[in-house]
Design brief:
This protein is mostly helical. It has helices spanning about 5-25, 35-45, 50-65, 70-80, 80-90, 100-130, 140-150, 170-180, 225-235, 250-265, 265-270, 275-285, 290-295, 300-320, 330-345, 345-365, 370-380, 380-395, and strands spanning about 140, 160-165, 185, 200, 210-215, 235-240, 240-245. It is about 60% helix and about 5% strand.
């Protein structure tokens, strides 16, 4: 049973590789353009900026044929935004007829992910109704919160692998036990309670695993956003008879920045993760935002620098409606340019990640007593060393 979710995730990855093979090995003429230009085109297509000027510029580029579609497909796939390209083309009334293979791929990805997200939404509502019977109102996080609150113009836009659900720390044990009695099984060991969520739970007939969080972020980053912060400001919703909640907009922005820049180390590696940046851009235009509350969470110099890095990227690349003073620090502009340079030179961030990732993993392993004890046990396990070496070799792929 525990292999059900894993098998579905593996199947999804196989389908992704198979679907893009034709586009990546396109036999027609390939435009003499750089990978950076392909990245810029992809950002323009995904941008939440709906101005006629941007639409005309993109239309001119597409009509000119100066597009390396294999690069666009490769970057979109690497960035987990391939399902968002076709909806973006339709929303901007643009056509990419020069590469039928690429258009077939993007349309197919959108269709498949729209169907999958419809099932994920139904599973989230079913999960909420189940937890309601335990007198728990689940707060959905990250992509699932955005999906349930209709943030995306097209639900196909966001590729997700799991459902992140925040529950009261005092009730997580009862929730996990009830789900396991209902057919869910643990899919791994994350070191809970030293970790911020219970081990992933899955069942063979589910589209995604479920992660029951007691905090939105890992222990060492709890200072940015706590359970109390999210629950106090959560927006309660009723969908198909189920009671659930999502974080308010400023909490989702803080969570997105902290998770992208601190947990996933995008700032240190020089990554520009378009899926996360697109979430920030869409949230910035979803209604009134308490920007002061967002800034207050990143008060130290290093934290404010990472906030500015993310917001600079979301505003300049994807048209986020973010106050300019929050993304205009000179040093952060230089770091943003470094990240853009690395887009055209992918081996650089690959090696940066390979060099830095072991240090970040070690720092996390020393951040909590339970994790330190687990590290001590692992030091005597030869299989652990093999896993670490395999992880380092695969970093950035």
């Amino acid at each position: 049973m525990a292999h059900g979710i894993c098998a579905q995730c593996a199947s999804l990855r196989i389908d992704l590789r198979r679907a893009r093979r034709c586009a990546l090995h396109h036999k027609g003429p390939v435009a003499d353009v750089s990978r950076r230009e392909a990245f810029d085109l992809l950002c323009g297509l995904l941008s939440v900026d709906e101005s006629p000027e941007l639409r005309e510029r993109l239309g001119h580029t597409l009509r000119s044929g100066a597009v390396s579609w294999p690069d666009v497909v490769a970057i979109a796939s690497e960035q987990w935004v391939s399902a968002a390209v076709w909806p973006a083309l339709r929303r901007k009334s643009l056509r990419g007829d020069q590469s039928r293979e690429a258009m077939d791929y993007f349309e197919g990805m959108a269709t498949l992910n729209r169907q999958r997200n419809s099932k994920l939404r139904a599973e989230a509502i079913e999960l909420a109704a189940f937890l309601n019977r335990l007198d728990v109102t689940p707060i959905f996080l990250k992509g699932s919160a955005n999906l349930l609150s209709d943030l995306y113009p097209d639900p196909a836009m966001r590729i997700m692998l799991d459902l992140d659900v925040l529950v009261p720390p005092s009730r997580v044990g009862a929730c996990a036990e009830a789900l396991q009695k209902a057919g869910y099984v643990q899919l791994g060991d994350v070191g809970f309670p030293a970790h911020h969520h219970y081990p992933p739970l899955g069942r063979p007939d589910a589209e995604a695993s479920v992660e029951l969080h007691i905090d939105p972020l890992d222990i060492e980053f709890r200072r940015f956003l706590s359970f109390e912060d999210v629950s106090r400001h959560a927006v309660t919703m009723a969908i198909d008879g189920a009671r659930l909640a999502v974080p308010t907009t400023w909490c989702r922005l803080v969570h997105g920045v902290a998770h992208t820049q601190f947990v996933n180390h995008a700032f240190a590696y020089g990554h520009l993760p378009l899926r996360d940046l697109l979430d920030s851009a869409l949230l910035s235009r979803s209604g009134p935002v308490d920007w002061d509350a967002v800034v207050a969470r990143f008060s130290t110099r290093s934290a404010s620098r990472m906030l500015a890095f993310q917001f600079t990227a979301a505003r300049q690349l994807l048209g986020g409606d973010i106050p300019e003073h929050m993304s205009s620090m000179p040093l952060d502009g230089m770091l943003f340019k470094r990240a853009l340079f690395q887009i055209a030179h992918p081996p650089i961030p690959l090696w940066i990640e390979r060099l830095l990732r072991p240090f970040f993993l070690l720092r996390r392993s020393l951040s909590h007593g339970a994790l330190r004890r687990r590290l001590a046990r692992n030091l005597f396990d030869p299989a652990w060393y093999r896993r670490q070496w395999r992880m380092v070799r695969q970093s950035g792929r």
